[in-house]
Design a protein that fits this description.
Keywords: Signal
Distance between the termini: 65 Å
Strand order of the largest sheet: 7-6-5-8-9
InterPro entries: ABC_Transporter_SBP, ABC_transptr_periplasmic_BD
Structural class: alpha/beta
Helix content: 40-55%
Organism: Alloalcanivorax marinus
CATH superfamily of the largest domain: Nitrogenase molybdenum iron protein domain
Number of strands: 9
Domain Fe/B12 periplasmic-binding: 21-270
Radius of gyration: 21 Å
Protein name: ABC transporter substrate-binding protein
Amino acid sequence: MRVVIGLLALCLSMAGQAQQRLVVAGGELTEIVYALDAGDRLVAVDSTSNYPAAARQLPKLGYVRALPVEGTLALKPDLVLLSGEAGPPPAVARLKQATSVRVIDPEWSPAGLLARVEQVAQALDLQERGEQLNAELRERFATLDKRLPLADPPRTLLVLSAGRHGVQVAGKGTQGQALLDALGLPNVTKGEGYKPLNAEAVLAADPQLIIIAETRPGSFQPEQLPLLDHTDAGAHGRVLVADGMRLLGFGPRLPDAMEAVLEVATGEGR
């Protein structure tokens, strides 16, 4: 009898999970959901959720900082997972009043990624899979730690390329700065937040490594950075152009992003 009851409980649990309607705002959270093998629960995601490819086929809510309350609720979600960047605040408050909402907002760091995975796994009742994923990530980070700190870390410029909206440089308090901190790379950009690129300041700083994060594939064009060849980084081929969510999302691809930066920083990628 106990075996029958146990099997029945398991079947009910699996049925409940299969019926769960999940909405996610935050590309890093969407990547974690897929990494937990729970992508089949998703009914909609925000516009920053562009990985994996399956996420691009889902209905889009719009931008993570401008969530539509009515449009989200019309999807009849059982659970809404929100990045700490989700907004505006009144919209988040209304969603919390109307449905089940979990805000996942650890710091932007390797440790923060592990916490983010744990929190998403708990919200989806997938703790065991979450522990497995975090074990894999810890192993990747341990391998990276053996290569750090670099003996002579290059002066680094991190650029956010938004296509026709131009380019910005990442200062303190940004996810770009957090990536550099994780790798022990000094940032040549002074001040807080993202700001328009100042060519004179960049040439004066003469970065030895330039990281260009694209908001969408192909959004960066060389003519956006005509000064590139006049920097130490450009002269020595230490320039990395990569997907912005991969570099700055602090999702499960963070070890890949850190490895890619290290390869260019040390010349291993040439």
